[in-house]
Backbone:
């Protein structure tokens, strides 16, 4: 075998895997957006078949042989190919460590889990969801042990989403946040609350909100010929290639704010996927490198851009045009304060910038305890509610607004939550770095966000998976990650807003 | 090999084919509904890969061997399995009769044809489409001769879409229609036209039309947990299994009528697919048996139910609730007359119940003449325009609104058109038969259409592909097909509406 022959075999297998992943992704997207309820069973069968095909390709002896050959001859490869083979073998090691029938069974479990979770949430009935979530966690523990038998399973799990992340590092990170955010929140709560009554309670029709979404996608520079928007229970982003990205939102007619920040958040994910370098397209290196880096981009758009005074100033005329009666007499400054109201609340996705990390902390601690067996699935609601009381000071009235609120566990995304808080903290440090060369506020005021998106494309987006997340981050930041940028940002912002 | 072993091999292949077809169907549906514009290239690659996989499964020696074994041991099979194997081998025989390189060339020709047709239609430039359409017709003649060397090629072609259909039968059918419809239309045109001005020109917002669609789906008894509605350029129905059917519509804000009848028409197709017997699910016997029977169901709902006085009476209060200003002062009787206005027109898909069959007749006569060589492709526009003048009494101003209007020929669907007119005529005879045991008008008036849909399920839907179309029809009707029911229906209806 020559290197060229091995590369051809490798590329051919990757193209087939990508085609199958594309088909599976579209089936899932369709299932979440427009498919009728009872379609789940048929979709489950088709997904099981396709994922079986993908598994067979991914673990085909010819592919493994070619990849191993390329690794052994890596000095003959260009740096991009070398990196791709390295990532492929790394990911393959995980898949190959799982027995095929267990892998397929897990895909089927997840397909079933979504409908069970939906119904359980609707009925606020944790008991009906408990067996499924137990199965999902047990499977993840088992898979983690197959993959890294000598390592704490939750460390393995964290590292799958963010290479190199451990419980030790995550504990240190959250401790740094807790130390600053919990007292800051107490000070905020002692002050008079800002008024956000005008963004609630009136009717904000879906049709006008849809127009608002289109406008927001334009403002944040999304190319709509390559990215469409759908409607789902829980907003998300999915992507098939750099010319086919989908974001979703959920329109609540009692406020335009929920969908507004969903669109900007998911739009941040979409921008990252839409701007991988062209030469990475069709390879495993195209698209976002990790969940935390992905969240750093989505939360960058949502919070550092979308919740800035300048951004509200920029979009407020359009809001008043679309909702003239609902926003009559409201000023941009009132809107700025309203969208930055900080207050302990029940729902993570609706949480403000200040309390958000505490919601994530609850989930992180619970996952850790489920993995090491110190709590059982049956105890989940009680533990959840106790932690909300401890960190956020509030009572959880029912599981619908408590432990059943997120889709992550039913989607198999266990170990994923810390990414959200890490992403926010990465983003704050990027903002500080960006300010050294970009007039961020000036760009937002002008309505042309390209100096900002240009910086992100140049330092993050275009690299796809060429570097591991920590290396990418340090290259972009010029120094190691430091959560102090995030806590400083929060303290400065909320001190000003609440006059602390 | 035992019969059980052969059945297992056969079923396993069919399940894989169905999974791939499901995935391809969803990719196409997504492409037509919500995918961003530039996604086409990536989708094309994935579809090409999946269709290649499907071809390999369909022509796998193991499958052919098992199917042939089952045919040779058909006395050991139950009637349903026997029928399925027969249908599988019948379809396979056609494909196998064509030399592979000619088959591949034809697929490539059709791939090219779609874009050429789109552009030719846009530019109203028949000359640029002529070489392609010539090639497509010649190929179809050649393929028909490979398949059935001793038979007139157009008979073979007709029989592929509607087994047992011949030119002799189709001629007799259209002659019977022509004889009655052409003079009837002349009499209608001599009378004052009904007023339908109020359903045009005002603004009927999409949002209210979406609610109207939901309502209409309920009225015609569609289970929305198994059938969702999307929005596309041209309305269509697609189906993946009996719990996953999709219809689409197109909202034109200048009238609610276009989408209304799209929803009811596509809803008729959907109902047929949704009600195959459970025991056929997962086999090749599930779903509609032929295009004509399918059209009989869609046009039954659209015309015999949806354009009846009772149906308009039933839904009119909802229409006025959704469009109070637009329909102020309009009576149900005025609406009934408006949706039944008959008038010669240029575009088949927009034609009324009375003139529709004449549009189909033009296409049938042209296809027949192209097959037997009595006209050439170059003469097509002139022949088309002459026939529109003769049968519909109108001048065709350009080929865009003439011979280039339909996508069927560029899609290779030659011999397909008669299905549309046959379907209407089958439906009229079903209506007459249904009346013997069902109070059709009473059911519609009551708002509970289940006596009607129950009859259709019992006599048509539940059988899937268990019987060939003609046998299914005769079993349902209790007598052979007779177009007189259709012409009687038209004469009675339009005599009353126009006071002839």
Residues:
């Amino acid at each position: 075998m020559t290197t060229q022959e091995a590369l051809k075999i490798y590329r051919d297998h990757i193209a087939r895997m990508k085609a199958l992943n594309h088909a599976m992704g579209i089936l899932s997207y369709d299932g979440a957006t427009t498919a009728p309820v009872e379609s789940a069973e048929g979709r489950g069968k088709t997904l099981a078949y396709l994922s079986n095909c993908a598994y067979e390709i991914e673990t085909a002896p010819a592919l493994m042989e070619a990849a191993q050959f390329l690794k052994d001859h890596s000095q003959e490869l260009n740096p991009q190919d070398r990196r791709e083979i390295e990532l492929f073998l790394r990911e393959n090691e995980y898949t190959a460590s799982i027995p095929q029938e267990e892998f397929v069974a897990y895909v089927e479990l997840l397909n079933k889990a979504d409908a069970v979770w939906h119904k359980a949430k609707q009925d606020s009935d944790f008991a009906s969801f408990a067996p499924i979530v137990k199965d999902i966690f047990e499977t993840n523990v088992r898979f983690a042990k197959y993959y890294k038998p000598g390592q704490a399973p939750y460390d393995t799990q964290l590292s799958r989403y963010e290479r190199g992340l451990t419980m030790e590092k995550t504990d240190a990170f959250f401790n740094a946040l807790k130390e600053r955010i919990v007292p800051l929140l107490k000070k905020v709560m002692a002050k008079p609350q800002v008024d956000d009554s005008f963004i609630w309670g009136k009717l904000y029709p879906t049709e006008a909100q849809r127009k608002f979404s289109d406008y927001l996608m334009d403002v944040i520079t999304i190319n709509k010929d390559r990215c469409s928007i759908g409607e789902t229970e829980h907003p998300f982003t999915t992507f098939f290639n750099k010319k086919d990205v989908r974001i979703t939102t959920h329109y609540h007619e009692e406020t335009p704010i929920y969908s507004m920040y969903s669109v900007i958040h998911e739009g941040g994910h979409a921008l990252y996927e839409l701007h991988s370098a062209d030469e990475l397209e069709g390879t495993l290196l195209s698209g976002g490198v990790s969940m935390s880096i992905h969240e750093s981009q989505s939360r960058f758009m949502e919070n550092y851009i979308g919740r800035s005074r300048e951004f509200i100033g920029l979009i407020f005329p359009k809001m008043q045009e679309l909702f003239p009666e609902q926003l009559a007499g409201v000023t941009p400054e009132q809107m700025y304060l309203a969208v930055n109201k900080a207050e302990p609340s029940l729902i993570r996705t609706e949480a403000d910038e200040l309390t958000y990390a505490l919601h994530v902390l609850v989930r992180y601690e619970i996952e850790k305890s489920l993995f090491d067996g110190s709590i059982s699935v049956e105890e989940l609601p009680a533990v959840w509610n106790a932690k909300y009381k401890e960190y956020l000071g509030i009572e959880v009235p029912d599981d619908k607004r408590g432990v059943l609120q997120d889709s992550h566990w039913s989607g198999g995304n266990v170990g994923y939550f810390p990414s959200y808080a890490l992403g926010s903290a990465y983003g704050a440090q990027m903002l500080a770095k960006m300010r050294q060369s970009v007039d961020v506020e000036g760009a937002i005021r002008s309505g042309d966000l390209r100096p900002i998106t240009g910086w992100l494309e140049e330092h993050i987006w275009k690299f796809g998976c060429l570097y591991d997340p920590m290396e990418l981050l340090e290259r972009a930041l010029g120094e190691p990650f430091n959560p102090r940028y995030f806590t400083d940002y929060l303290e400065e912002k909320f001190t000003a807003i609440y006059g602390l």
